[in-house]
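Section: Multi-chain targets

For targets with more than one molecule, the full set of components is provided together so that the structure can be written out for the assembly as a whole rather than chain by chain. Components appear in the order listed by the source. The example entry contains two components.
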Amino acid sequence: MSERSNIRLVVLGVLLISLIGTLVARLSYMQLVAGSEYEAQAANNSTREVLNPAVRGLILDQRGRPLVANRISLVVSVDRLALAREDDDGAASIANLAQALDVSENQIRERMLPCGQEGAAAPPVCWDGSPYQPVPVATDVEPETALAIMERRADFPSVIAQLESVREYPQPFDANMAHILGYVGPVSQEQLDAQGESGDPARLRSRDLIGRNGLEAQYDANLRGIPGITSLAIDTAGRVTGTAGTSDPVAGNYVVTHIDARLQTVVEEELEAAVLRARESGNDGESGAAVVIDTQTGGVLSMASYPTYDPDLWVGGISARDYDILLERRALSSNAIQGTFPPGSTFKPITTVAAAEQGYDLTETYNCPSDYKVSSQTFRNFESEGFGPISFQRALEVSCNTVFYRLADEMWLKAGGNAATLESADPIADAAQRFGLGTATGIDLPGEAPGLVSGRIEKQETWENRRDNWCADAKEGFPETRKSDAELADYYTALAKENCLDGFRWRNGDAINASIGQGDTAVTPLQMAMLYAAIANGGTLYQPHVAKAILTSSGEVVQEVLPEAIGQVADSETLAFLRTALAGVTAEGTGASSFAGFPLDQVPVASKTGSAQVFSDVSTISWYASFAPADNPRYAVVMMVTQGGTGSGTSGPSVRNIYEALFGVDGDRVNPKNSVLIDAAPASLLPVVRPDGTPVVPGIDDEAARLGRDLSVGRADSASRASP
Amino acid sequence: MTARRFIGGRAEDKQSYWRRVDWWLVIPAAFLSVASSVFVWSASRADLAPADDPQYFLVRHLINVTIGVGLAFVVSRFNFRLLRAYTPIVYVVSILGILAVYSPIGLSIAGARAWISVPGGFTLQPSELAKVAIVLGLALVLAEKLDAESEPSDRDVLIALGLAALPIGLVLLQNDTGTALVMSVIVLTMISVSGAKRRWIIGLIGGGILAAVVAVQFGVLRDYQILRLTSFLDPEGESGAAAYNGIQARIAIGNGGLFGRGLFEGPQTQGNFVPVNESDFIFTVIGEEAGFIGAVICIALLAIIMWRGLRIALNADDLFGRLVATGVLAWLMFQTFENLGMAMGIMPITGVPLPFVSYGGTSMFASWIALGLLVNVNVHTQAKL
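Its structure, encoded as tokens over all components, is:
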């Protein structure tokens, strides 16, 4: 090769050395000499995030009907920090605003006061959000009002009126579901602080709304979505120097529920009808609950609580007045999962299982006298009726208490009687626990109550917790009561003394009460529904699920909530006996009056009535627990009304109507086409969501026309609206 | 093993290949490629990567490196003679590749229509691979003369310029000024080292300057292109996005100090202040998080690779091999200096990746194919010794 080529390569080498030298020199200058200058500039660098909020996900019923959606609303908010900087602490601004919105100044102030501050209302009326966030004081403002506010900036320097996305409750078929759906509220400062410094784009921000109850709270992380963020780089002077990054918002996921809105409407109507029936028959009929479970999956097809309220009241924050009304009506908590009640005779299948496990032959004959005596106490049958020697099935059909009393007494004695220890057998309590009582079912809703099993260990625990109070009361002798009624005070004192000394002892009277679901036993209507579902499906106790699946806003399946078995409740032989016996209850037992004329030959219904006594109440709790078809069960339906009267008189007819709706019963004929469920069955497929986010909903109008029934008739406004 | 040594034929060939590979060349490149994945990870995990998979770009980078090394191995094993025979095919395919960006599979990213999409959700940047074609094409034209020992004739140089003008022109049309510059430097350097007459070199440099002046004066270059090229001269001026990018890049590097801020700890990097810091501005991540020590190691490794490239060019026993090595060397030199220079504010900002380091599939493949060419020339030279 030529000399010229070699020389030029050498020149290239020299160039290489000088270029590398230049780079290293420049690097040394930047990092070693001028480093502190750059550090200062880096420290001055900051970004400001401009948020583009994500659309919150929808909640759908099993057919894709939206139960919770979003709508755009004109919201007027007050910036508290800006207000505080005004000359008169914003008094004039608030007066102007009250006038413009046509509300009292007080109403605005009560909404703005942060929770915990002096004079603030209790949560959730007070402002529970971040103190740095403008507080929304009015939602769904008329455009003219909003325009007037925004045009007269001088009068409202700290007021903002803007379009915001708020929750909307389409209430398909007028299904209310307030307790299942829950509501959203502003994220609190504690929740913001709790997540610490997080770089997660899905983290909570002070403007966010989060689910505060029901499905909105349970699936908040799924529903919330991720806001789009434009990150602006800002120098010390506050100038925007550039865009450091942008991201598009990701809409929240959709929650598909097992709930069927049409069935839900029927169940809500029937629950209210049962309450009204109780009142017509002279009872107080205070409250109630109803649950429909898919016995094959544990899916919650419907769940209602009475009284309920209009979920719209929460949109944009609830007012003190509305909140007080809800509190007074005890409409806020769900009786289906948060209320615990004695189950009464609906408990008897559990005692039956316990007896079978203790070796009792369920095919034998048992004596049903009108009462059962144990030492000093006499336990009576309902209305002191005796039936003489009857089969065990008949004992369930007519709900003969004395048969169960004797079984409980004998099992108690066999376990050691008064000499039994905590390790001794407690067959009824064991069976009750196996059936899921005393433990929360694990439903995907917040605030569920566990209830209580009546048993030897539970009594010991109660005694340990309350002994000190009892002993103190025994010592003091109820001085307050004594002033007015010495005899009553003596009675109380004796009771307290006995409890103090002996309150841990599991007596035969306790066992006898427990055998018919009385005593300390307390259950939620949901627990009863899951328990009857387990009897129906051959013994599998499922964890109940409201949610069926999580979808993306474009309809892809994120997660399917699969049936989850918690345990096996009893052997198949006993369960088969129970299914036959409970079908007998409906055919020729205590449930027969409710189901007179019902085509039981085509759809056999298994059921159990209950009329549970509550110490302080005048009337009994009306229970009706059931499943159908008895020979091949698919649904478990449980309804209860407090201060409701008998099970068959109050709840029974409503449960019958729910079955008529489920199976499409028309007079004495069964026509599946009349079922409120499409194809007369729970949906086997997930609903379809179009790529644009709108769910495909079966033609509501067509359905109504096909059934020849105006579904809006019978809507109980008094039940769904809290405000008069 | 002992048995194989005496079988001869392929086994011996294979063994001598591994012995002849210049490990001083390969190991620094491999180290750079693998180590840079950590900085790609750091730059991308918070903003670019999907929220549920912060390691997305780390994994993709390592996959790219693996594919790149595989390509380098194939290229380095290629029969030296066949390489010349295949050169026309490589050239034609490259031109077609560049043209393909105008077809329906073409994609436009960051203002440059320079990508094509290939099956499997991947994208390729054909102009990166066209550099290989230019290196091979020019080496062929400038080295394969009838009278072997003399310098290339004017005719040879003109053919070479014509060959180079086509891809350079096409790349310019795609607004990819950076790649066009790299290609021009490759051409200039290869013509120089081929031994062409001095007037060609002076003429080419002068022509380049003249072309730049004409382009600016008569508006051939668009305003934003000029802005990008000149913003480094007046970094504190109000010149928009490019200046912002440059300022943030320098703050990041300066903020690193001697030891750096530590991985995932650089406020400039983690705050996403420096755009494209997983790719073209990867050096800002190294500078901020690994400090002066890390940055010097990075420069040193690149310098070792280029030193070995120079050595291979000097030792090459035929002009074709020397010119291939020279072309690769010019490519790596200019791209390294331009990339680091723009990150440190001493060169204009053009979208040129740092060889072996920047995130980006095609650039990584091209860097390793270039390395494979160097290995091939070296192995061939050694075999003749």
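Chain B has 15 helices and three strands.
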